[in-house]
Amino acid sequence: MELLKGKEVAKKTRENLKKEVLTLKEEGINPKLAVIMVGNDSASQIYVRNKSKVCNEIGIEFDEYLLPEETKQEELLELIKKLNEDKAINGILLQSPIPKNLDINEAFRTISPEKDVDGFHPINVGKLVLGQDTFISCTPYGVMKIFEDYNINLEGKNAVVIGRSNIVGKPMSQCLLNKNATVTICHSKTKNLSEITKQADIIVAAIGKPCFVTEDMVKEGAIVIDVGINRDSEGKIKGDVDFEKVKEKVSYITPVPGGVGPMTIAMLMTNVVKATKKQNKLL
Ligand code: NDP
After folding, report:
1. Cβ proximity of 70 and 41 under 8 Å
2. 5 Cβ below 6 A of ligand 1
3. What amino acid positions are annotated as catalytic residues?
């Protein structure tokens, strides 16, 4: 069994980005990310702080827009439109969740596709489906980067993705399909799940339930990617895979923490640099 150390891939990715950003700065181009947060969700505050730290490390400028809980939809859209037009801003990210009375889908649709570094705009999702160059949702993009870094060839492999969320499961499946894997998508209504996962050469678990994938669901020699980030009763972070038992059977597995998690921010930064280059006609 070999560990897929996302943490190391993420570090390498950040180091390469730092060099790219330096080169851009020498040409007078300063990549900048704008992050919008509405309300006081405590987890979001931590995520935004982490994003700001990594921007700082890489040399990407970071603007934070904190809107109060009682913000109206029009006000949110107005801010997004203002940021769309601001040439100094290359990427826009709306941190979810936002208060329930706001329409997050309309907000995502309002972000200019050229600045949509989260890859949530329907145009960018559509391009992914069509196999065109786009901004890919950061977590699945991070998983693909891990495959690339470890030279794992996906062509013809049976890949089973558990979870069909818009931010992980669906784009993950599409990325795997684009690399010629044979993809099965499973969800909460799937029957005989373990019969399906036992056929898989690659399992991607994006469920949100600790230790959901057990060793009897995994075939000998499979590759297991654990996207899950869950907290157990002691507050310890656990993945969606029963790591200790599953690791005995597999050829590769991502640990939690230190696997997919660190890749997400690294790929966000990759998307910001890409957006900057595209906007400056360097790509
Ligand atoms: P969602 O809750 O949006 O989606 C969970 C998916 O799992 C749904 O499609 C659901 O099916 C499916 N599911 C739930 N129960 C079962 C079951 N018993 N059998 C099969 N499928 C099931 O979660 P996300 O996609 O946003 O996140 C998934 C996990 O990944 C979470 O732990 C989250 O914290 C983590 N995550 C990690 C990130 C990272 O940076 N590493 C980034 C984003 C998320 P249905 O559609 O039928 O309800």
Report:
1. no
2. no
3. 51, 95, 118
